[in-house]
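User: C-alpha cells in, sequence out, please.
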C-alpha cells in the first residue's frame, strides 16, 4: 500500500484548525476515527480508497492535531467539527465512514445534516439506547489511566486493550498509545460522550443509504450490529470475519474493499 501518496494539512474553521490526511481524487469520502485515535487509524485504508475516491481522514476535534475543545466532549460537538471541516474544505456533500466513536459521530452528522451525506458507512458502531447507556454505568473505563512517574500507566493502557487486539501485532498497540498520549486527559472523553448520546432519537432521521458493518470478534459492536441496522430504514449489513476492535488497521484491505463495494462508483 502506497502510504507515501498521502498528503496532510490543516484547515481553518471558526473554532480552530482541523488536521487531516488525504489521498486520491474524485468523490469525497470522509473517514472518522475511533477514540482516542487520529487520522492515522486509516493510513493503510486511504491509499486503497484513493483508487476511486478522494479519501480524507480528519482528526476529530479534541484528538490528534485538531484544535482542543474548551468544553466537555459531546457527540454533537464532534459532529459540529465535521460540519465545519466540510465547509472549510468546500465539500458540499460526501460519503461518510465512521469507526466506533467515529460511527456515532457520523450518525449525528447524517441525522442532523442529511444534505451533507451521500452514503453512510457505520463500522463497528455501537447502538446507544437506554439499555446500552445503563450497561455503560457499571463498565470500567476503557482507556482511562492515571499518569505515573515511572511510566507504568503506558503498560496499563496496553494491558486494558490486549483482549480486544490480535496477537502478534504490537504495532497496533504502539499506534494506540501514541494517539492516546497526544489526547492526554481527553483519551477517555470520546467514550464518555458516546455513553451520554441518545442515538435512539437520531437513527430514524437518517436518510442516506447506509451500511452497518462489524467485525465478528468485536465484543462492543458486533452484538449491536443488528439492533442498529434494524433501526435505520433500508440499511444493509456486512460482517468481516475475524475483525476486532482495531479492524480498520488489522484488516485494512478487506475493510476498504467492503466500503468501496457499498459506495459503488459514485
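Assistant: Sequence out:
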Amino acid at each position: 500500500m502506497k502510504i507515501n501518496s498521502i498528503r496532510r494539512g490543516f484547515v481553518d474553521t471558526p473554532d480552530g484548525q482541523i488536521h487531516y490526511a488525504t489521498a486520491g481524487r474524485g468523490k469525497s469520502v470522509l473517514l472518522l476515527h475511533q477514540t482516542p485515535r487520529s487520522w492515522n487509524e486509516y493510513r493503510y485504508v486511504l491509499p486503497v480508497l484513493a483508487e476511486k475516491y478522494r479519501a480524507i481522514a480528519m482528526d476529530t476535534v479534541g484528538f490528534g492535531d485538531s484544535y482542543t475543545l474548551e468544553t466537555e466532549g459531546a457527540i454533537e460537538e464532534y459532529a459540529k467539527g465535521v460540519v465545519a471541516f466540510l465547509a472549510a474544505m468546500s465539500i458540499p456533500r460526501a460519503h461518510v465512514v465512521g469507526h466506533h466513536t467515529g460511527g456515532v459521530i457520523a450518525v449525528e452528522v447524517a441525522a442532523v445534516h442529511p444534505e451533507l451525506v451521500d452514503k453512510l458507512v457505520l463500522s463497528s458502531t455501537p447502538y446507544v439506547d437506554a439499555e446500552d447507556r445503563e450497561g455503560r454505568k457499571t463498565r470500567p473505563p476503557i482507556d482511562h489511566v492515571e499518569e505515573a512517574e515511572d511510566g507504568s500507566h503506558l503498560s496499563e493502557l496496553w494491558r486494558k486493550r490486549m483482549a480486544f487486539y490480535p496477537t502478534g501485532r504490537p504495532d497496533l498497540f504502539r499506534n494506540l498509545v501514541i494517539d492516546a498520549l497526544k489526547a492526554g486527559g481527553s483519551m477517555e472523553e470520546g467514550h464518555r460522550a458516546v455513553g451520554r448520546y441518545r442515538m435512539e432519537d437520531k437513527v430514524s432521521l437518517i436518510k442516506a443509504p447506509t451500511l452497518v458493518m462489524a467485525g465478528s470478534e468485536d465484543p462492543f459492536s458486533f452484538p449491536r450490529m443488528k439492533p442498529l441496522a434494524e433501526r435505520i430504514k433500508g440499511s444493509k449489513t456486512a460482517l468481516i470475519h475475524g475483525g476486532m476492535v482495531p479492524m480498520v488497521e488489522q484488516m485494512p484491505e478487506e475493510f476498504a474493499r467492503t466500503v468501496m463495494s457499498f459506495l459503488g462508483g459514485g
